[in-house]
Hints:
Blueprint: E1 21-26, H1 30-47, E2 64-72, E3 75-87, E4 96-104, H2 114-128, E5 133-139, H3 143-148, E6 151-159, E7 162-169, E8 184-187, H4 194-201, H5 207-216
Parallel strand pairs: 4-5
Antiparallel strand pairs: 1-2, 1-8, 2-3, 3-4, 5-7, 6-7
Helix pairs in contact: 4-5
Protein name: Histone acetyltransferase
Domain N-acetyltransferase: 24-180
GO molecular function: acyltransferase activity, transferring groups other than amino-acyl groups
Amino acid sequence: xxxxxxxxxxxxxxxxxxxxxxxxxxxxxxxxxxxxxxxxxxxxxxxxxxxxxxxxxxxxxxxxxxxxxxxxxxxxxxxxxxxxxxxxxxxxxxxxxxxxxxxxxxxxxxxxxxxxxxxxxxxxxxxxxxxxxxxxxxxxxxxxxxxxxxxxxxxxxxxxxxxxxxxxxxxxxxxxxxxxxxxxxxxxxxxxxxxxxxxxxxxxxxxxxxxxxxxxxxxxx
Length: 221
């Protein structure tokens, strides 16, 4: 359960806000889809200027949306990342799937792992549905991330005036995920607080001891 993004307090949308956990899953509720489309507009229209006003296209009618949800103890508050997958309907190429519209809210990009986990669930859930090949047109600046996640670059592309690369996932690195509605859960990264820094600055604790304290209190991933 969640409110519309416009009704969330500013602290829930700003860079200072951090959640205790993040769930990456298939969209199952209307508000999840609504916020996913809002996030796509903010990233692809407002931030990158790739589209004018809206990035929706014919693929959205048949695509499966995935989201990364920020929350507390499983209580989901906000969509902070999204991607979509769809199967290519072609008798000549059965089992071909595509991923597209990968977006992470700028305020949560430093969280780490949100984009990579969205990619992981996208490919793994398609694999469970009979995917034999999984492709994507990836923005050039994200090529390194995909390569680290076992994707191969096939050729360079220019799409809407921006450099892209045509890439393919190595399905052997993505075991089928048959429960994408539950997805994967990540623990949030919590910053070191002033109280935790004080002993370090005074020389009472080493940096390693500060980190051990954080691990013991469950405040690091």
